[in-house]
Design brief:
CATH superfamily: Acyl-CoA dehydrogenase/oxidase, N-terminal domain
Number of domains: 1
Strand order of the largest sheet: 1-2
Structural class: mainly alpha
Number of strands: 2
CATH topology: Butyryl-Coa Dehydrogenase, subunit A, domain 1
CATH class: Mainly Alpha
CATH architecture: Orthogonal Bundle
Length: 158
């Protein structure tokens, strides 16, 4: 599959490292003692690599194959499966909605990584981002029963 994904981490690095005071974010609450401003480059570079090498090659399928609802089941393009799990396994997916996970990223940093993933294939981004948003909604407002039913699988990407 051809891909013409051309993107750079330059703007996000400038915004996160020079314009915003991310050190205050990394020193606050659940992020304290975890990440630092020095980690931003490697996080963005990893997200860019995933976007370019795993997600972008599926862009054409996102434009031509689409998700299909048939007989009570939704199927997605086959090519979306491996990039989905690559995103999840590298901590750029729905696990970030799990505030008990010490590796979860601040939303400011997730916004930058999500931008890369959406630019690489706008059709595949919602599979991760919608799950992340839904998990956050359940985490903050769901009953304990609903949390116990849905959150473990949502946080893991299942």
């Amino acid at each position: 599959m051809a891909s013409n994904f051309l993107y750079s981490t330059r703007d996000q690095k400038f915004i996160l490292k020079e314009w915003l005071d991310m050190s205050k974010v990394f020193e606050a609450g659940r992020f304290q003692g975890g990440y630092s401003v020095d980690d931003i480059d490697s996080i963005l570079e990893n997200a860019m690599k995933i976007a370019k090498e795993a997600v972008a090659p599926t862009n054409e399928d996102g434009d031509t194959i689409h998700a299909v609802y048939k007989n009570g089941k939704v199927t997605t393009p086959e090519s979306f499966k491996k990039p989905y799990w690559t995103v999840q396994e590298n901590g750029l997916g729905s696990s970030n909605a799990d505030h008990s996970d010490p590796s979860s990223l601040p939303l400011t940093l997730m916004g930058a990584t999500n931008e890369f993933l959406a630019a690489a294939n706008a059709a595949s981004g919602p599979y991760v981002m919608a799950t992340t948003g839904s998990a956050g909604l359940i985490r903050d407002f769901g009953s304990e029963k609903v949390k116990n039913i849905f959150l473990p699988k949502m946080f893991s990407g299942h």
